[in-house]
Model the fold of this input.
Amino acid sequence: LAGPPSPPGQDPHGWRVPVDCVRANELCAVEPSCSSRYRTLRQCLAGRDRNTMLANKECQAALEVLQESPLYDCRCKRGMKKELQCLQIYWSIHLGLTEGEEFYEASPYEPVTSRLSDIFRLASIFSGMDPATNSKSNHCLDAAKACNLNDNCKRLRSGYISTCSKEISATEHCSRRKCHKALRQFFDRVPSEYTYRLLFCSCKDQACAERRRQTIVPSCSYEDKEKPNCLDLRNTCRTDHLCRSRLADFHTNCQASFQSLTSCPGDNYQACLGSYAGLIGFDMTPNYVDASTTSITISPWCSCKGSGNMEEECEKFLRDFTENPCLRKALPHPPPHPAPSSRGAAPHKHLLPPGNAIQAFGNGTDVNLSP
Amino acid sequence: ATFGLYFPRKEYSENVYIDQPAGTPLLRIHALRDSHGEAAHFQLCQNLIVSRARSHENHWFQIREKTGLLYLSKSLDREDFNMLSVGNWMPLSKVMLYVFLSSHPFQEKECDSATRTTVFLSLINATAPACSTLTARQLCFMEMDLSFHIKENKPPGTFHQLQLPSVHHLCQNLSISYKLLAAEGMPFRYNENTTGVSVTQRLDREERERYELIAKCTVREGFREMQVEVPFLVNVLDEDDSPPFLPNGTDTADAVVEFNRKEGTVLATLTVYDADTTPIYPLESSRKKYTGTIITDDPWISETFRVEHIFDEIHFSPNGSQVRGTQHEYKLVLNKSISVTEHRSFQLDVLVNDTEFHGPERSVMLHFNVSILPVSIQFPNMTYQFTVNRNAERFAQIGKICIENCMKFRGVNITYKLLSPNVSCYPVSILQGREGKWGSLYVNDSSVLRRPECKEIQYTIQATDKQSRKHTKTLLTIVLEGTLLKKEEDCPDSCAVSKHRAECEECGGLGVLTGRCQWRQGSGKGITTNYSTCTPSIKTCPDGTCDAIESKDPAVCPQDCTSGNIIGGHGKGTGNLGIKSGHGICYCFPRQNCYCEKDDIKEQLCDEVCKTVI
Done:
């Protein structure tokens, strides 16, 4: 409607650059008026909903003062030191300010500004070939090889694979908690040019797609004896600061928008892929539901069975994974002849693939936003 | 429970542009009634929610209390825009407003009515577009799906207006008309004059819970005509208006307690259906909604039994369309283990209550015919006799001792004991098997086997039930046979150490039955459970479980019990114990590592005879 929006990073009216909440908390602590107000506000928020809080004059005053402090706009970075502490500070303020159960929550993480093409540049160095030209190669296998050539990636990958495949007893197939932790370490500490290639490799045959599905050892980290209801799962996730933050980040960066060429917010594929990977290792771990090569369906381990009158809301929540034009539901059939490489030359607008982060990653295309 | 008036949508959305004049209508909000004669009053809360819970006083938007029309009361200039998008790094800022609903005129700005809907306004950083630049889709419908919910059993009413007030206001020279397709025979009506869509009768979710229509829009501009069709969905919300009922009238089930007497055993299950939905989220409230209570004044019954209630969504088709219902299962479960001496039968009644249904048939009675049978602790009427080879080594497994039906027992703990008459010859001991079902006999002192004066040894075996102290006895005869073999020099004490068939079969080791280890020849196909290995007895080792006797000493069967490293291609067993599968030949040094590897050293092809030929 309004033409292409300005890409993030270009700031039309100079807002304050957010500091991280740990730092903001330190800044607030040395300033008596701020620290006492922050304490007051936390007491106000403890176990009360927004409206009763705002009805109290003292609470309202504390809130007004804090709106001007760096605490109010602080954010966190993914994988930063003291990430959990940072998120605890963030939610200590924001949990009481939102109206409770909102469908979409704003991400507490700083926006991602790097572009997909940086990863491709690195990716092609490792593969030693252009991913778009070689039609016979198995990209998922190449990704595993590339990971094994890097000490850090190899160590953390074999770490999570052995943790997730360790049988505990005849009844307990593996320790899900430890497996999730190992997966989080892998995705937090290994550079994304390795992890994304493993997770989002493009496939032309079933063996490759099965390898892609198996990347996160789904029998331990994903599947469970029973499928919970998605709203129930969301609730469980929201009781945990980290999971809640990652889910909010996913919603912020992958929410399909009709305002852009690619269906992704700000045309930023990288941010969406990053927040998808950021969900792995939590209750809301998403994965490929099967090894199909023609259509990609992604979903957390839940269903909308038993939603009662909340079925509409449940399906809306699930559709953000299963039918999300930004994350993209269907892979196109492989082209009949090798497609020319789209990198290097600016692609023609009408030749652009339909917007979708996973597919774009697999094809090695990036969106060119030149007007 | 009455809800009063309600909104047919959870949220609404619209775009707002810079410098749109005051008085511009934005969107129309509808409310549906709970009972006849209610009139809706709409009101906005004082604050806008900008990004991240930051609120801002609302100076720009107002709603008509009676009609629900949201409009601009003050134009937003660029400065307002900048103020409202502070702290928002997304390229598109949104503000949120809450619209409240009441059946009485509002006295003041109340912000705490339970019934509210959310309006998202996207602030577009540009002036309003010219009508000619808008696509038909943008002229006709908002981005959001046309999806509504209507409660069952409520009076009819108008719940949506297809025409977009903002577009209608902006593009007055365009002719935009709508139609509702696929609506024949459905309880909805489209009014062309107001473009309103109304529901014409009370709906019943148990008959149909989803209506899928199509909204069609035609835009005419001179000779040009454009058409757009979008899905128009109506979901019917459920309320508890159906009583529980029994499938085929089955309200009785038999529950027999015999060999399985363990706490947690499910004895019988009865099913109750309900045409209403039962949400599994949040679970606790649904559990309270549907109760199952044991009706008894006998404290023993209420201590010994409990009822477990699980429910699941099922589908039934009243007239071709699929409707969700609920299947409740009530399971009669043992709350504690029952003694083997207990003997009684009675009828146990469970009252199932649908607490939210307001009608006479809100409850059903379920009956369980419970029979608790006693079980006898006795040996099958025979005496046990085992022969043991004199060359057997310590921890050799001789056989199993088991009272009648012992393998069927659950929750009954039997202890097996040997009462020895003559203490001089006492080579065997007994160990409890898993879950106290059987006893395993094994050689405890192999030096006794070598003594010539010990030939035939008589034991009495006693089996005792832990709980009731009931016990039973039988005779056991151990016959020693075989001639003593000469012990090989420098043999390891564990069979598992041997790597080759030849050295395996000429040595003994812990746990062997006849003085010599046995060789298991595997299939040799990659990593397999059938790997080659040397073992005291192929029957018990490796069999994938580290049993009570094997776990007495790590040298008996490391293939089942090792917790150390395994070097080579392998798969570990359950609980990280033992080698479940291996590549080639697996051998172990007890208390150290195990190795699985392909054996490349071929057996000698030539013996003495063939050498002379060459």
Remarks:
- Residues 1-16, 116-133, 329-355, 366-371 of chain A have pLDDT under 50 and may be disordered.
- The longest strand of chain A covers residues 286-288.
- Strands of chain A lie at 286-288, 298-300.
- Chain A touches chain B through 46 residues (CB under 8 Å).
